[in-house]
Amino acid sequence: MTYSIVGRDAETGELGVAVQSQAFNTGAAVPWAWAGVGAVATQSFTDRRYGWRGLELMAEGVPAAEALRRLRADDDLPDFRQVGMMSADGAAAQWTGASCVPAAGGAVGDGWIAQANLVESPRVWESMGEAFATTEGPLSKRLLSALDAAQSEGGDWRGQGGAGIVVVPAEGERWERVIDLRVEESGEPLVELRRLLDRALGYREANRAEVGRAEIARAWGLPELYVLKSSLYDAVDEGRLPDARRILRDLLVEDARWLDFFRTVSQLPELDALARLVAELDEGARPGTT
Hints:
This protein is α+β, with helices and mostly antiparallel strands.
């Protein structure tokens, strides 16, 4: 009832899962990932234990194939399940039970696992592996290209519905995410997921930049309010205090409550210069005052 791909970026060590199904809210059930540990896609009469328990086993050092074997052994309905598991080192295992609705199957390649059930043909999962292996760019883009390829081969024969994508860093806490996006229900979930992914990548690049945040935000087409705030931070960081003062006043003309916002964020150690500008306004230098 779903097609999904688990992937690893050999250069960055990132791990991720992407999924699409006619089913509602599929992005909350199928993809599971833990930074530095592994990633799991569990689908077909989905049993989420393969996700959270599979990651726990891999975190304990159990190889992906053995973790999957143990979970199937404890499952009353293993023949109805479809699961792909990959550990942080790229070792992979895939299971498609004999009772999964056809066409159903999966494939494992270098750094990827593709699987599908209730789809048009084996070309659905085959095309995902091909697209992932030949697409360049960040892991999230490669995963989404794999979903696009699956859909181009017919996808879920019932139609489209929900989709999701999760990417975790090579190292970090269990909760850390590089990308975590879902489309709960849509006639074109992959179109919406790509739009959201472009936004997420744009915000990520701008937030991580040390200079030129506003320029990056404009290039990614981020909202004008975010561009304006980025311009303020750029001006503060670059010592252009007259420009920063002007931008801050413009924001306060739009809504005086921005002062509460900046009064709070300016308490961060790296925003000492902004704190001084806020202090000026607190002392009476607000627009419209003398």
